[in-house]
Amino acid sequence: MPKIQKESAPSKKSGFVKIQDGIHVYVGGSGSTNFGLILTKEKPVVIDNDIRCRKEFTTGMKKITRKQPGILFNTHHNFDHTSDNGYYHKMGVMSFGNSFAVEEMYREESEGIWVNQMVGRGPKVDHLLKTLKVDPPKVIFENLLTVEYGGRIFQLIYIDHCHTKGDSVIWMPKEKVLFAGDLLTYKTHPVNRLGNFHNWISAFKILEEFPAKHIIPGHGPMPPTGKKIIQDNKKMFLKLKNETSRALKKYGTPVKAAENVYLKEYEKWFRYPLVQANAHKMAQEIKRTKKK
Which of 221, 223, 231, 238 has the most CB atoms around it within 10 Å of its CB? Predict the structure, then answer.
């Protein structure tokens, strides 16, 4: 089994990591998005993209292969996973994504937030504010789509409304490699601005059913082999739920509850300030559930 490059969490380094023969992961530094690059007997396959790091990704890709990509998969709709779709479409790449992801891309464009929501988050997007339009995947699937290409098999599987409405994974059954998108992060606190914690916690059981040797998270450095990353994410979410429930019972409102949620054992996870935002979302869900 190929050795995984050892990196601290969160990794400050960005660049490609080889996890198996022909399977590479572009690891975004300091919690930025991770992307996939899979070599095939035909053209390479790319998983997710971000216009803000096009140069870094394409420069690294040229050191691995001289071929241009032939296929692109999107795990979900977020800007940092789909904003460079147009670049690949112009070179004739065929793209695939879930129907909910497409709907969400158009929704954010119609609401005028597609680019605006990224302002101040770095890297800068100011120059894209009036020019960058959504460019959704061309082939749309609902629940499951199997793609055979260049001697490899890719299964695109819709999981549920968790991090976003269209969360899907890319499963390579022969290689036992799972690209989890933002359903999983490694020692990095997740964003749940558009998500559903109840579904997300339930989804971990589904992810555990994959006989995966390598699991690629949407953010954070590459984890060790095996499924511990799933267990770690689930444990953190359940801790967040329990602490939020206690705070909500004591303080009454989601806002006050969130202000008093602390996850001491997860302070070293990257983006710790997101805990309060996630606690507020969790408290709102708990309150809605109690009213039913």
Answer: 221
Cis status, amide bond into 123, omega within 30 of 0:
yes
CATH number of the domain bearing residue 162: 3.60.15.10
Tell me the residue type at 47.
Answer: I
Question: In sequence order, what are the beta bridge partners of 49?
Answer: 82
Say what the pTM is.
0.94
Q: What is the pLDDT of residues 223-258, one digit of tens each?
A: 999 999 999 999 999 999 999 999 999 999 999 999
Helix, strand, coil fractions of the chain, as percent rounded to 5: 40, 20, 40
Does residue 292 lie within any of the structural domains?
no
Phi, psi of 256, deg, nearest 5: -70, -35
Count of the separate structural domains present in the chain: 1
Return the structure tokens found at 22. Answer: 């022909």
> Count of residues for the chain?
292
| Cα gap 31→154, rounded to integer Å | 26
